[in-house]
């Protein structure tokens, strides 16, 4: 009797959940009836059949639908299964939509075995609280304290590249990747000149790339979204092996720091690593040990692969556009003369063209080409009316090549950033660091470190490359798979 009763209750719950799901889906489809659906949609599976193939094919498809969305006026419907996501490339809608969607799309949880409730993967009140607690760690004063590290690391990179001078084409990615990982570990964990440096190596970079590749594979394989199916898949095994490598670095450093009784030594140093600031929050009871570990891992994850990938494309684009490279070099000469002194904080605002070079590279090759969010409140902007719980995907790549950038949107023209009339009226058309309340917390850090690295590299080397050979893949971060070599000569 009890069994039948429980079965009945279960049936009622399943029916109720199904009815709510069907109602919400109907509401969304009805309210977005005017938004064009992307071509080749199939019943039940929607566009899932288009997201098959390797990560290069997936990237080609994402580019294609971003360009179609531009033609549609900035909005399209993409069906991942029976429910539509709203693909956005319209700069006018982008900001209000992003600010109404502070929760991440559920697929971000696929990264939580490593990053837990850290800033990238966290949602709701936890994200809000952590963002507030972490903001002081990214203030200008703290970042200025990192300049010595940025300069030292840039000199090390120049030195590491020197055997390649005059040797023809080579892949610069491994150099950039390890160097950026060392930089973020020094600034996030305070690692310089300790034995822990041996923990920073290609094994860590590889584990990170494999981890992200697995996440993309899971996103694109709809049945792996179900935890009980995924649990038994080989991808899960691989994920756990990568997570073990990735967590070992922060866990070891965190344990060691906590064992140090003489904290005064640490806080009296010229710069303060992010970890020290987080440990202070821990002492005040604001963050638990686990939360500190997750935020440190988040900063390492978000901070090194993004900057190094952005530099990778910048060097290829400068190598393919000698006139832009010469102009950047002339500006460096104006600021530094013949001296190869370190970059000081006063130099950075003077490097206006160099900043334009970086922004233009990030416009054409945004390191994070798409972000996906869940609308956390009913939204009514312009003619778009979305119920709470809808999914939006902002194609940063698409928006940064849209009509707002004019007829030469696909050309590499850093000088456009120096002429306000050549830029879109709406500044949100550039969203490489995302936009709104949940945009990149490390933007200033990234710009400071990239500018410093470019000063050191460009004043020593002349670079050659051919960006037309580039082939990319979607791995959350936009990564090249072919055509990404450069050659260098001494200046
Ligand atoms: C060229 C370099 C960089 C680019 C292009 C970039 C881009 C982005 C983008 C697009 C987002 C939004 C992601 C989303 O909503 O899914 C983001 C978030 C974030 N970035 Fe960056 N980033 C860069 C460098 C950095 C650096 C150097 C750090 C740290 C040192 C950092 C830390 C973060 C964090 C913690 C978040 C999550 C913010 C939140 O949700 O509150 N990023 N970044």
UniProtKB/TrEMBL annotation:
Tagged with keyword Iron: yes
This protein's record includes keyword Heme: yes
Domain of life: Eukaryota
Record's keyword terms, sorted: Heme, Iron, Metal-binding, Monooxygenase, Oxidoreductase
Cofactor field: heme
CDD domains noted in UniProt: CYP4
Coiled coil: none
Similarity comment: family membership: Belongs to the cytochrome P450 family.
The protein, known as: Cytochrome P450
Organism: Plutella xylostella (Diamondback moth)
């Amino acid at each position: 009797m009890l069994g039948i009763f429980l079965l009945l209750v279960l049936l009622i719950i399943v029916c109720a959940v199904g009815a709510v799901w069907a109602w919400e889906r109907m509401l969304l489809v009805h309210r977005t009836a005017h938004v064009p659906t992307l071509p080749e949609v199939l019943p039940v599976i929607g566009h899932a059949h288009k997201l098959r193939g390797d990560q290069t094919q997936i990237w080609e498809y994402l580019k294609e639908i971003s360009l179609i969305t531009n033609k549609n006026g900035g909005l399209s419907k993409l069906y991942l299964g029976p429910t539509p996501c709203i693909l956005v490339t319209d700069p006018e809608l982008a900001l209000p939509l992003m600010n109404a969607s502070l929760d991440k799309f559920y697929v971000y949880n696929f990264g939580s075995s490593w990053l837990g409730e850290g800033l990238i993967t966290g949602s709701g009140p936890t994200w809000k609280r952590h963002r507030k607690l972490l903001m002081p760690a990214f203030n200008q004063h703290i970042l200025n304290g990192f300049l010595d590290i940025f300069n030292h690391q840039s000199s090390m990179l120049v030195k590491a590249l020197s055997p390649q001078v005059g040797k023809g084409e080579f892949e610069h990615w491994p150099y950039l990747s390890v160097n950026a990982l060392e930089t973020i570990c020094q600034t996030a964990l305070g690692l310089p000149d300790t034995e822990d440096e041996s923990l920073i190596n290609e094994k860590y970079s590889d584990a990170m790339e494999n981890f992200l590749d697995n996440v993309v594979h899971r996103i694109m394989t709809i049945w792996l979204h179900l935890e009980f199916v995924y649990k038994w898949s080989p991808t899960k095994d691989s994920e756990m092996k990568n997570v073990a490598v990735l967590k070992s670095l922060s866990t070891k450093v965190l344990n060691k720091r906590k064992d140090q009784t003489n904290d005064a030594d640490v806080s009296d140093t010229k710069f303060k690593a992010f970890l020290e600031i987080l440990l202070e929050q821990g002492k005040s009871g604001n963050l638990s040990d686990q939360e500190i570990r997750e935020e440190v891992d988040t900063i390492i994850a978000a901070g090194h692969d993004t900057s190094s990938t952005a530099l990778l494309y910048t060097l290829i684009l400068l190598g393919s556009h000698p006139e832009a490279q010469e102009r950047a070099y002339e500006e460096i000469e104006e600021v530094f003369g013949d001296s190869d002194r370190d970059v000081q904080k006063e130099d950075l605002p003077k490097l206006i063209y160099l900043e334009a070079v970086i922004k233009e590279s990030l416009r054409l090759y945004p390191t994070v080409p798409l972000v996906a969010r869940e609308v956390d409140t009913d939204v009514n902007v312009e003619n778009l009316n979305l119920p709470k719980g809808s999914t939006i995907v902002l194609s940063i790549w698409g928006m940064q090549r849209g009509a707002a950038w004019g007829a030469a949107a696909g050309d590499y023209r850093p000088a456009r950033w120096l002429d306000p009339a050549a830029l879109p009226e709406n500044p949100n058309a550039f969203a490489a660091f995302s936009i709104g309340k949940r945009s990149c917390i490390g933007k200033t850090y990234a710009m400071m470190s990239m500018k410093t690295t470019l000063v050191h590299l460009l004043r020593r080397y002349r670079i050659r490359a051919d960006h037309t050979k580039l082939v990319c893949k979607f791995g959350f971060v936009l990564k090249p798979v072919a055509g990404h070599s450069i050659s260098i000569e001494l200046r």
